[in-house]
Amino acid sequence: MGLHLRLRPGRPDIGRYADRFGLPQSADGVGVTFLGVASLLIEDGTSAVLTDGFFSRPSLPRVALGRLAPDEERIAQTLTRAGIDRLDVVTPVHTHYDHAMDSAVVAARTGARLLGGTSAAQVGRGGGLPEDRIGVVVPGEPIRVGRFTLTWVEGEHCPPDRYPGRITGPVVPPVRTTAYQCGETWSILVEHDGGRTALVQGSAGFRPGALAGRRADVAYLGIGQLGIQDRAYIEQYWAETVEAVGARQVVLIHWDDFFRPLDRPLRALPYLGDDLDATMSVLTALADRQGVGLHLPTVWRRETPWALLG
Q1: pTM reported for the whole predicted model
Q2: Rounded to whole angstroms, how far apart are CA atoms 179 and 193?
Q3: By C-alpha distance, which of 217, 214, 238, 301 is closest to 26?
Q4: Residue/partner pairs of 137-145 with CB below 8 Å, 24 or more apart
Q5: Which listed site, 71, 100, 215, 274, has its alpha carbon 20 to 30 Å from 37?
Q6: H-helix or E-strand containing 31?
Q7: pLDDT tens digits, 182-235
């Protein structure tokens, strides 16, 4: 297995996949609202969990050359538009900037606990969260959050990991992008008392066998950088996530251009950074062969993929 670099101009047209959007909506029960990259609001009207909460989305020049800090105005606007005033938990899927940079600010604004690995805890400390609002999870050990049960299973980041390693001291913005090392990479299993189950796989990486014996009806599958991998890698990624947990519906996340503000229409990353077309070609074939639903979420909409399970 290896990387396939695609030195093509332009970017994929997500309009080609219009038939993949349009998941069912519901005002009741468990709903999931996609807020870009791997930020998912998972709630049932009383309890609410947010993965990542990355809303600042700084430009590529700033990421490459400048220093990064949470954009308080963009964060406030996003929380307002998404109708988020209180959260129980904010949990980064790993601690690269495009996942964890805003997590402490979002937790502070919503009264949430910041849960994750030791690296996420350092992001929380650097963001000024008190220790009683920071929790380090034990891999494989469930935690109750209202009517939800969350279990963190440690995995791997998709190659290449540009900022590997653990964060060992508080991250106090503004900082260089390199300060946000990957840290622990999580597969997060979500179970609701009403019977809804989901896997949130924020990075297109896997640890062979890590999810064996786990179950989830819906998989939220991160596909960032998947399009630069060869076909064998993509097929193994699907096997180690979707097939491993027996998911019958798959929702694709982490495909959007996260250098673009969230208040503008989402678009795919350029071919120089990823190849959504290559990813969709392989995943569509796998999903069709196995009878699995394959979807793209619509930003800002409260969707319920469990409605498709019959």
Answers
A1: 0.96
A2: 38
A3: 301
A4: 143/115, 145/47, 145/49, 145/88, 145/89
A5: 215
A6: strand 31-34
A7: 999 999 999 999 999 999 999 999 999 999 999 999 999 999 999 999 999 999
